[in-house]
Amino acid sequence: xxxxxxxxxxxITENRSRILAVIVTMVRDFEVAEDLFQETVIEILKxxxxxxxxxxxxxxxxxxxxxxxxxxxxxxxxxxxxxLSEMIADLAMVxxxxxxxxxxxERSALRRCVQKLPDRMQKLLxxxxxxxxxxxxxxxxxxxxxxxxxxxxxxxxxxxxxxxxTKISPSCGEAN
Length: 176
Known about the structure:
Shape: globular
Low-confidence stretches: 172-176
């Protein structure tokens, strides 16, 4: 492996969650997103000679990811019903182009916040967002009533957002 390929590989590894976030926002299916991430890695490595090292790697890699998703949609003859997926992907791009330190602090805070949740709630999150389990299967696997899954997940996301904000708030310092 030459130096450029090695540097690209390190950049991909370091920014995996950011690149994957853009893909997930576009396809809304974690399993498909994982497959498309792998295709994106291949495209990044094929295109590494076109990358200008004086520029930020993440927006460039996420642009490739968006192209991979568009190609996936064309092959599937699946066109998003509206421009909503594109708009969400553009918002995700704004987020991934943000402050690297803030991104790391938010990820660390999320990890700590999830660990504070009861085991049952952690299991629900892992099944839904880690294994892409949905609907009745999610309700059965997580031992919830099917009608309460959406509400429970919405409340959990809100609780996690609030916990993350508390942990990264400058007035709270790094002690949280």
